[in-house]
Design brief:
By secondary structure, the chain is an alpha+beta fold. The chain is 34% helix and 29% strand. It is built from 5 helices and 7 strands, in the order H-H-H-E-E-E-E-H-H-E-E-E. A 7-stranded antiparallel beta sheet has the order 1-2-3-4-7-6-5. The radius of gyration is 16 Å and the shape is globular.
């Protein structure tokens, strides 16, 4: 599984390096701006940013056509979901202003089987969606910081997290369910 994941990330990363100019993210005082921008994204803006990253890096098979909206009238918040296939789905929560607050990817199936890279590609796409100045190499750095690509990762139970630019990125594996989550750090 790790070999397939490394190959998928390396292949897409190499394409990104060759096809597109790389500008490293700026860390001087822009953290609050990025944090604010992400907290003001509507579901339509989120979908458009996600699809733009898919198109920019030619990540076929990951485009979002229509988000399935779910209301939670008791708390004044909402949620959305998108099913890519039987083993990969995206779920998000909205704040009281109906802006995207948190996004999760769920991958199901036998975690010891190779994923073909689609789950890791979706993770990288979400990272690119939340950080407009990031390149695919920056997304790879976040994935490495979480520890997903470490050689000693337990394939039956794992938890890793990192915080960058006002976002917390978390990845966990429990009982054949892999979860990647991005949340705005308050």
């Amino acid at each position: 599984m790790l070999t397939a994941a490394c190959f998928a990330i390396a292949s897409i990363g190499m394409y990104g390096m060759l096809a597109l100019p790389s500008n490293p993210p700026q860390s001087s005082g822009t953290d609050q701006t990025k944090k604010h921008e992400s907290g003001t994204a509507t579901t339509e803006e989120f979908k458009n940013k996600f699809n733009a990253a898919v198109g920019k890096y030619r990540l076929n098979g990951l485009s979002i056509t229509r988000l399935n909206m779910k209301d939670s009238s008791e708390q004044g918040t909402g949620a959305f979901e998108y099913v890519f296939n039987d083993e990969l789905r995206l779920v998000g929560t909205l704040n009281s202003d109906q802006k995207v607050q948190e996004v999760r990817l769920y991958g199901t199936g036998d975690v010891s089987e190779p994923t073909g890279g689609i789950f890791l590609t979706a993770i990288a796409t979400l990272i690119l969606t939340t950080n407009k100045d990031y390149t695919y190499n920056d997304a790879q750095d976040v994935i490495q910081d979480i520890g997903i690509l470490d050689r000693d990762v337990s394939q039956s139970e794992f938890y890793g997290a990192t915080v960058r630019n006002g976002f917390e990125y978390r990845f966990s594996i429990q009982e054949d369910i892999s979860t990647f989550e991005i949340a705005i750090v308050e």
